[in-house]
Amino acid sequence: MADIQGSYDDLFTAVPSALATLLDEGDAGASVAVFVDGEPVVDVWGGFADADRTVPWERDTIVNVWSVTKTMTALCALVLADRGELDPDAPVARYWPEFAAVGKEKVLVRHLLAHTAGLPDWEGPVDELYDWPSATARLARQAPRWAPGSAAGYHSLTQGFLVGEVVRRITGRMVGEYFAEEVAGPLGADFHIGLSAEHDHRVALTVPPPSRGEDYTASTSVGNAGPAAGTGIRVRDGNGVAWRRAQIPAASGFGNARSVALVQSAMACRGAVRGVRLLSPAGCERAWVEQFSGDDRILGRPVRYGLGYGLFGSTYGWGGWGGSVVMVEPDARMAVAYVTNQMREPAEDQRGLEIVMSAYDGLQGLRS
C-alpha cells in the first residue's frame, strides 16, 4: 500500500485509506484535508510531485487546482457583498461601465457568479490570458450567446476575469492581491492566485492522463453536448511559468488540500474560522441561494448553481480539470478538499466523490 504522510483522527481512517488506494491504482501524487469546526481532522498526502516519480510529495507541495479556484474568487465577491460594497443584483456595468456594450447592459453580477451571463467562451489566444487588461477588454467587447439569466453554460475560463474585474473596479486591487490580503493572509492559508517565483520549487506539475501527452486539451463538454467554442487549454499551458505568474481567477490557483479546506471552512462555519470572521452568517447563506437549475448548455448535464458554487443537496462546492475538488457541508461545519497532479479521463474520474464519501464515514463517527 502507498505510504501516506500526515495526520488524521482515528474516526477518519477511511480518508487516508482512500488516498492510498488511488495512489496504488497509479496516480502520481495528491493531498487530502478534512476540516470540521475549522480544525483539521485529516491532513494527509502521498505519492510524487513529478511525472517521473522521483520527487516525493511533501507537506507543503502545491499544485494547480484548476477550477477549484472559482470558489476562491467567488469568496472575494461574497466578502465584498457582505461588506455592502458589491450588490449581486446590480448590473455589472455599474462597476465596469465598458461592459455594457453589445447587449450586456442587463447582465447582473449574480449572472457572472452563476454561469448565466452568456459569455462562456474564451475566444482569444492563450497568451492573452496572461494580460489582464487585454483579457477583460476582450470580454467587454463580446456579445452574450443568450439572454442573460435565461440559461446557464459553464464559464470555464471567463468567469474569473468577469468576477475579478468587478472586484478590481470596486477595490482598486487585482483579485489575487485582494484574496491574499483579505482572505488567505488573515487565515494563514497557503493558496495563491498569481504565484510568485519563490514558490516554484514547491509546485507539482500536472501529469496528463495515462497514454496522453502535454498537448492534452481541456474540454468542458460531456455526453451529447457539442464542444465548447473558443480556445482550448493544454496541459503544457497550465504547466508553464506564464500560467503560474498570471492571474486567471477561474483556473490558475495554486495550493494544497490543507489550504483549500481551511479557506472554505469559513463557508462551512457560518463565516468565521480560527477567530477570523470573513463573512456574516447571512453572507454565507447568500452563496447557497439557487440561481439556476436545469441543463448546462456547455457541460451537457443538469446542474444547480448558487453564487459561485455548485449546489448538491445540502453540500456545496466545485471541482477542477484534472480531479481536484472542494466540498462544503455547512450542516456539519465540514470542508473536504482533495488536490492532485494526476489527471484521469473526466468521464472515468470519480476520485473526488470517493474522497468526499470517505470523509462522511468519519463524520458519522463524530455524530454517534
**What is the highest CATH level, the class?**
Alpha Beta
Helix proportion: 25-40%
**What topology, given as strand order, has the largest sheet?**
1-3-2-15-14-13-12
Number of domain modules: 1
* Count of β-strands: 15
Report on the biggest sheet: 7 strands, antiparallel
What fold name goes in the CATH topology slot?
Beta-lactamase
On the 0-100 scale, what is the average pLDDT?
Answer: 94
What is the 3D form?
Answer: globular
C-alpha Rg (nearest Å): 19 Å
Q: pLDDT under 50 segments (min length 5)?
A: 220-228
CATH superfamily: DD-peptidase/beta-lactamase superfamily
CATH architecture: 3-Layer(aba) Sandwich
Order of helices and strands: EHEEEHHHHHEEHHEHEEHEEEEEEH
Structural class: alpha+beta
Number of helices: 11
Q: What fraction of residues sit in β-strands?
A: 15-25%
The end-to-end distance, rounded to whole angstroms, is 30 Å
Model description:
The chain is α+β, with helices and mostly antiparallel strands and 368 residues long. The protein has a single domain (4-367), classed as DD-peptidase/beta-lactamase superfamily (Beta-lactamase). Helices cover 30% and strands 17% of the residues. It has helices at 14-24, 69-82, 109-113, 132-141, 158-171, 175-187, 235-238, 241-245, 257-268, 281-287, 351-367; strands at residues 4-8, 29-36, 39-47, 62-64, 192-193, 203-204, 253-255, 272-273, 276-277, 292-295, 302-305, 310-312, 315-319, 325-329, 334-340. The strands form four sheets. A seven-stranded antiparallel sheet has the order 1-3-2-15-14-13-12. A four-stranded mixed sheet has the order 5-7-4-6. Strand 14 (325-329) and strand 15 form a beta hairpin. Helix 2 (69-82) packs across helix 6 (175-187). The protein is globular, with a radius of gyration of 19 Å.
